[in-house]
Amino acid sequence: MELFRYLEKFSHMKDFVNTLHDQEKGKHYRLYAGINRNHIPCEGTFTHFKDRLGEKLYNEIFHVLVEIVELLGMISYKILTTDGTLFHTNARYKGCTYFCNDCNFIEFKGVIKNVRQRVLFRLKNPEKIIPGKEIRIKLPCPSQKFPQDKPRPKIEVLSLFLKEADPEKPSVFNGIFELEKELHEAHLDLMVKRGVITGAVMGESISNDSFFFRCPKLPADMEARIGVRRDPQNPNRKQKIFGFNAVIDTSVEMDLGLELPVACSTLAGNAHEGKHYIINREQILEHHGKTSKIDLADAKYDEHDNFAFSRSHRAIPVIDYNPRSENISAAALKERGYDRNGWPYAPCGVLTRPNGFDFNCQRAAFSCRRQCVDSKNPEIRKYINQCPHWINYHASRSICPFMNFPGSLRSHSGYRPPSQAQSPSISG
Q1: What counts of helices (H) and strands (E) characterise the chain?
Q2: Quick one: pLDDT band at residue 200, thresholds 50, 70, 90?
Q3: Residue 60 domain-assigned (yes or no)
């Protein structure tokens, strides 16, 4: 049933379930799945099914489907692309990015004594009692992920209020906080408005008891995080997504005009996506024993380990350059000796061009091709008469082993970055 949903491109599970229940539209799905109208699964059934399977077994099933398509001759693995896609979780984001497991068990020692003292203070000053006004209990944020250079905020863990007593239905919280006698005389009841207690340890006295609370900003899905992507409606703006990142490897079949997914791994929305380049490739090796000839990826995967992994399996990595915080001005590039593509500069300052590749030794050759002859730059033309490489057939020539220059690109003058070369269905 899950496979039918993806093959028919249902964006939401709710739409697919509604179609299953439709007498006409859903009859083929029910027939092929072997179910009748009395046993149609709901949205919760699909969710529990995924939870029972777990990511590992779900991935095993996925690779069985990939193998079936491979046996049909539709997957060659010659060109593999890697890209990540952010998708929302079903949980609601509540405004905190530093939540952790500690936020589910915020300890307050002596909470009964604390609340009791606050209520007694109000009972001694009846003019200050406003029915319905909240009595808020706050504690410092316990998260281990909170930045050390920022002051920790106070978290509201419990909110109570006083109201007129109901003789037929007294509040149970009067007894919990040991205020039955005092509140009965004042004709008031103590009520809890907000707060989630996740545990309690009772001591010998009310000053030693410990209650554990859940932070109100803690989302139901604690594995999800906020990721950032370009807004599909406006590429100039960034869009925040609270959820996960699915890193998908796609086999590009040029002859068939198809792009078929062959590996997938899931991580938190803000996790480091570049590390999953190798994880996905190892999935393909483990389940299918295949390697690619060309690996295509965008700048998120510009890491030396990714280049080394592809080349160790005799593939050509074409990964977009990620400048990060580097100075990539023309002067800075000349000073370091090579440009964004890893092409070296000649001694005169001219950018050399690719001039062959030794596949066995995994090294690229570059030459200046005497560009100074046609150059209009006087700083370059003055080197013509004194260039020591002029006598050589290719003039100035450089050899760049990929072991020393992992980011070098085997390409030509018409090279385009992978982010521009990918089709819309590949680039997320």
Answers
A1: 12, 15
A2: confident
A3: no
- 66 DSSP 8-state letter: H
Token pair listed for 168? 């037929």
Residues 6 or more apart from 228 whose CB is under 8 A from it? 238, 239, 240, 241
pLDDT surpassing 90 at residue 281: yes
Residue 38: its pLDDT value, please? 82
**pTM across the whole model:** 0.71
Q: How confident is the model at residue 428 (pLDDT cuts 50, 70, 90)?
A: very low
d(CA 346, CA 357) in angstroms, rounded, equals 18
Look at residues 213, 239, 263 and tell me which one is the last residue of a structural domain.
213
411 exposure class (CB count in 10 Å sphere: 0-12, 13-18, 19+): middle
**Could you give the percent of the chain with pLDDT greater than 70?**
93
Name the burial class of residue 269, with classes exposed (0-12), middle (13-18) and buried (19+) by CB atoms within 10 angstroms of its CB.
buried
Residue 208: strand, helix, or coil: coil
**Do the domain assignments include residue 400?**
yes
Q: How far apart are CA 13 and CA 44, in angstroms?
A: 10
As a whole number of angstroms, the distance between CA 293 and CA 283 comes to 17
Which 3 state secondary structure label does DSSP give 195?
coil
User: What does the alpha-carbon distance between residue 142 and residue 159 come to, in Å, rounded to a whole number?
Assistant: 19
Comparing CA positions, the residue from 213, 77, 46 lying closest to residue 139 is 213
Tell me how crowded residue 414 is: count the other CB atoms within 10 A of its CB: 5
Cβ neighbors of 267 (< 8 A, separation 6 or more) are 244, 245, 247, 273, 276
Instruction: Provide the 3-class DSSP secondary structure of residue 46.
Output: helix
Residues 6+ away with beta carbon under 8 Å from 247: 82, 83, 84, 264, 265, 266, 267, 273, 276, 277, 279, 280
- Is 134 contained in some domain? yes
Segment (H or E) for 356: strand 353-358
Q: In which domain, by residue range, is 336 found?
A: 330-406
**Into how many domains does the chain fold?**
2
pLDDT-derived band at 178, boundaries 50, 70, 90: confident
d(CA 122, CA 81): 67
* 253 sits in which H/E element: strand 238-253
Give the residue from 213, 248, 274 where a domain finishes.
213
Beta 238-253 vs 188-194: how paired, if at all?
unpaired
Per-residue tokens: 377: 């730059």
Helix (H, G, I), strand (E, B) or coil at 188: strand
